[in-house]
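Weekly puzzle thread! Below is a chain. First person to post its structure in token form gets bragging rights.
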Amino acid sequence: MQKCPFNMQNGTPIVDDNNSISAGERGSLTFDNLHLFEKLAHFHRERIPERVMHARGTGAYGVFKLTTDLSHLTQAKFLHNIGKETPVFVRFSTVAGGQDSNDNVRDIRGFAVRFYSEEGNFDLVGNNTPVFFFRDPLNFPDLAHAVKKDPRTNIPNGKRPFQFWARLPQAFHQVTILMSDRGIPYSYRHMHGFGSHTFGMYNEQNKLVWVKWHFKTNQGIKNLTDGEAAQLPVFHAQQDLVEAIDNGEFPSWQVKLQVMTQKEAETYAINPFDLTKVWPHKDFPLIDIGVLELNKNVDNYFMEVEQAALNPANFVTGICASPDKMLQARLFAYGDAQRHRLGVNHNQLSVNRPRCPVHNYQRDGLMAEFRNEESRQEMNGVNFYPNAEVNSLMPSKKYPPALNVSGQIRAYNSEDEDNFSQAGELFRLLTEDKKVELIQNFANGIMGADLVTKQLMVQHAFAADVQYGEMLKAKLAI
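Winning reply:
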């Protein structure tokens, strides 16, 4: 078989890739070492800024198959017509650690799904838990700082997260989940996924409902104890996913929705846009809508996973944001971080590019490359709107439903909005052995923290459930 030629980036053949050009056998390098200079310069720039959070991850391609027609709920065409298939890309991740951290730590897992729909990309950037630590985005940079390495020593410090969580009572529901057996999934294949936020859907009549997305694993839930996790290779979760797909063992998830009407949202006992709480299934049962299957590994990790930029602001017509404050902040934060990390034209990269035609007047910027050859708008030099072109691009005018709002513009303190009842309900659902495991995990994590932090956590546990408080207090001997 004929070997491929070895070239520099401009196509020039490479004569020798082992020996640089020098002035004599033992002399200095010369300034015409063009291949050497290009090779070194490229090497110096191979790394880009890693994600501030969710840096360690893996991804795969697959398909979403619709099993329930949702045209009565949404205009989104990928949710119309039973049997319809939509290509997807899914990125899994841990949250706190860097790119070279451990897959098997007690941490939330990212579960981000991109639907390459015929109308554009819809990104559902969720986690493997249905709630989060807080309901106001002002707390997010502080969480990131608390769970990252100590800025003085650059060493992980397990006391720091508990110091933060203990002084933010609304975090206790998420902390309870994290300290349970669900805190360390065996693999990405063996965990559920959640959109977590509340999203809007609106139909052709512009009737709006609120929804939550759920992804229920068909592989069964499988978790690790702290001891079991310590015995596995640090890359276990990534290797498990890659090998399963390579072996034809395609992982899949049942996709489900909870639906709440606007009227129900106005009168329901809890704030339906509070990310620290779930919607009880007894009031809002899960509706099966489809199956998500992953069946193809990436060919180039850096190009397709590291440069993937899933963004909660990527909606399609028929799906919209809700008043969830955490979601609204993410609508800005993700795109802003991605423009810093990947540049202003990151949506032109293959993994981020929509599978549908895209027409607009955006031009230029670093690494501008993609051009839609079908569109004369991109060939005639017009980069403004409105303009005099006969075939000028036109906005769709398909506005999402208007929301009625009222109230004073000010900061609203939500610190006392029932931070504990759902944590207590979760605790009471656990079997006795799972309760013991939860308390042991809690004790392992908080062991090095100061006494006040431990006392605050015990107070939160008592507020959730008396048995919870008594067990944690006894375990911590305070």
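Puzzle host: Confirmed. Bonus trivia for everyone else. The longest strand covers residues 287-297.
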